[in-house]
Each structure stands twice: as structure tokens, then as C-alpha cells.
Design goal:
alpha+beta, three-stranded antiparallel β-sheet, 2 helices, 31% helix, 27% strand
Length: 67
């Protein structure tokens, strides 16, 4: 997977038993490639068996909240 041109990826996952593992792997990969914490990654169900994993760069950090 490549994320150079976008901060999101849409996946069609047919095997229901692989959904959790697949989404967890994609979140970890996107987090590492974007050098962003996992809590800034959103997963949405965008259709039947279709999931969009996206990076939210505007997610406040702990430091932002405590100021």
C-alpha cells in the first residue's frame, strides 16, 4: 500500500473473519508511514464490506487539550 498522494485508503474486505486483522494492520501501517499516532486514524464503514481508513491530522494531542 502507498499513501504518498493521499491520507486515506478504501478497502473492500470480503472475508468477514479477516476484517479485524486487516483493519488493524492498515491502521498500523498508515500510522507508521504518516508518523502519526494511532488515535489520529479513523476507520469508517463506507458500504457493504467496504471500509475507509483515513488520517485526521487535526486530532488534538494531549498537550493541546491540557493547555
Amino acid at each position: 500500500m502507498t499513501f504518498e498522494t493521499t491520507d486515506s485508503v478504501t478497502l473492500k474486505i470480503w472475508d468477514r473473519s479477516a476484517i479485524d486483522h486487516t483493519l488493524d494492520t492498515v491502521v498500523q501501517d498508515l500510522s507508521a508511514r504518516a508518523n502519526a499516532p494511532k488515535h489520529s486514524i479513523a476507520v469508517t464503514c463506507s458500504g457493504p464490506n467496504t471500509f475507509t481508513v483515513s488520517l485526521n491530522r487535526s486530532t488534538p494531542t494531549f498537550e493541546d487539550v491540557t493547555r
